[in-house]
Amino acid sequence: MHEQLLTTLLQQISTGEVKVEDALRRLRHWPVEVLESARIDHHRPLRTGQPEAVFGATKTTAQLIEILGAMLAAPTVVLATRVAPEKAERILERLPQLTYHPTASILTGNDQHIPTDCGQGTIVIVTAGTSDLPVAEEARITLQWFGHKVAAIYDAGVAGIHRILAHSDLLQQGRVIIVAAGMEGALPSVVAGLTASPVIGVPTSIGYGAGAGGYAALMGMLTSCSPGLAVVNIDNGFGAACIAAAINRAG
Fold first, then answer.
1. Stated pTM of the model
2. Number of domains in the chain
3. Judging by DSSP bridges, how do beta strands 229-231 and 199-203 pair with one another?
């Protein structure tokens, strides 16, 4: 239950629109709902400003069906990351209310509970190349389900520097900018030198042998000479989205 929903519920109780016993029923599983395979943290949106998300990569199909089914029954958005296509297909057979986003490998649901006006502005997501799209889309969909406005600039890497320079106006408008890049990871440094907004670099595991699965991009971003650049873990689009959301919520 996020802050907006709880505020509305309290107002409805005060006006008599909702009975106390009905409110108690809605809050019965708050703050923690204990399942066979997990403990759902329904209190997280009130405590941290963003709902609980499910990391799906190492969970079984049965575990995800149980967890996501319980979340669908609650007044919260549903977001599960790193869900393989074949696993998602089996889950959708049992939970057709969910939507699968194949590029991002994300399952979502309960869009009616997406909070509104969560941020102070627009978060801009940039990729160096098309190969970085899965990471960028993980960030974009996460931010949308967390209630933030998002704009995207895809395939604008330094090999054709004019591609990112053509979007300088949008970069200036972004309250936070997420930049996903593989290879040598140079694009976040360029973007951080073009805007006063905080830039979050996401190294991706795209590149040839010496790229070492994203470590070259990670080291390049960590040793950047551009101020205002922070870096998350390799391929961690979700983590970048969470940080960007926290910055965008701040007054």
1. 0.85
2. 2
3. parallel
